[in-house]
Amino acid sequence: GERVILHVDMDCFFASVAALGRPELAGLPVAVSWSSAGGGELSSCNYLARNAGCRAGMRIARAKELCPNLIVMPYEFERYSAVAIDVYRTLHELSPHVMGVSVDEAYVDVTGLAACGRKTPREIAEDVRAKIFAKTGCVASVGSGPNRLIARLATKRAKPDGSHHVPASNASSFLASMPVAELPGVGRGTLEKLRREGIGSMVGAVGPMGTAGNPTCADVAAAPLSVLRRALGPKAGAQLRDASRGIDARAWEARPPRKSVGAQVTWGVRFEEAAEAVAFVEKLCAEVSERMRRLRVKGRTLTLKI
Q: What PANTHER family would the database entry show (predicted)?
């Protein structure tokens, strides 16, 4: 039978948890931020806030202009952890093959369940969504397909609050017209390198062609491997061609081996004075040091990411 991988992604997770047990927030646009002042940045917005134009990374002052009745809630890490544990328990009840990505995202290999033939992949996905909602009160979207890549891309079609299955037989047609920018890890740098090689501006007979600088997966799949390797390097070029054809040969690692210890803050860190920045970095260093002590590790390389 065909392999079936689910990609389970919690919808607007932080904002969704913020609304749990708070009926006064029902039907209101909700966002989460480290600060309720105008200079703070939003991290997670529910769909009502998104529909009003609010986005992750947006300053609160701008968000309130777009959505005057926006409710901004603080981070509540203990609540996120508690809900995440319930989500992961639900997934482990379904299959022992669970691969965690983050607090609100995981892959589940349900090939065994699908092979029994009692439920279709779509029915399995809807069952998972119903169980997660019953247990946590939070909504999950689920994409499914023959590998992790296709499952993750299917989730984009599943959102909000839905499921979408792409069987192996449909994988290449599902990808063909998709902009290559939608593939995980493809950013502006990669697109610029592809554009310089003329990929995406070629006129050909393979599927709907992308415009210059906006190549589709079909454009990349049809490009000579030598050109892709020249543009991106030997390994990345081959990987991108595989991905554009729906091939994902990565090994399944339920718990990938830890290669580093770190601490990072991604949202809304802004300082007026140099001394504030130094104090902040010192706090982060102390946190990393404490984590290293707890894990009893030493390191050779220190990386500072800004």
A: DNA REPAIR PROTEIN REV1
pTM confidence score: 0.83
Q: What confidence score (pLDDT) does residue 268 get? A: 59
62-78, pLDDT tens digit by residue?
Answer: 999 999 999 999 989 89
Amino acid found at 278? V
What are the residues facing 109 on neighbouring strands? 5
Q: Mean of the pLDDT values across residues 206-220?
A: 66
> Please, which pLDDT band fits residue 267 given cuts at 50, 70 and 90?
low
Domain ranges of the chain: 5-11+78-173, 14-73, 177-245, 264-305
**Domain 14-73 class?**
alpha beta
| Strand arrangement, sheet containing 105-109 | 98-102, 105-109, 5-10, 140-145, 163-165
Q: Which CATH homologous superfamily contains domain 177-245?
A: 5' to 3' exonuclease, C-terminal subdomain (1.10.150.20)
Per DSSP, 161 falls in state S
Architecture field, domain 5-11+78-173 = 2-Layer Sandwich (3.30)
Q: Do 40 and 62 meet the contact criterion of CB atoms below 8 Å apart?
A: no
Query: Which tokens belong to 124?
Result: 């399995």
Q: Compute the radius of gyration of the chain from its Cα atoms.
A: 22
Residue 274, token pair as written in the block: 């140099």
CA distance 14 to 267: 13
CA-wise closest residue to 91 among 73, 70, 109, 78: 109
Q: Which residues pair with 225 in a beta bridge?
A: none
In this predicted model, which residue has the larger pLDDT, 39 or 45? 45
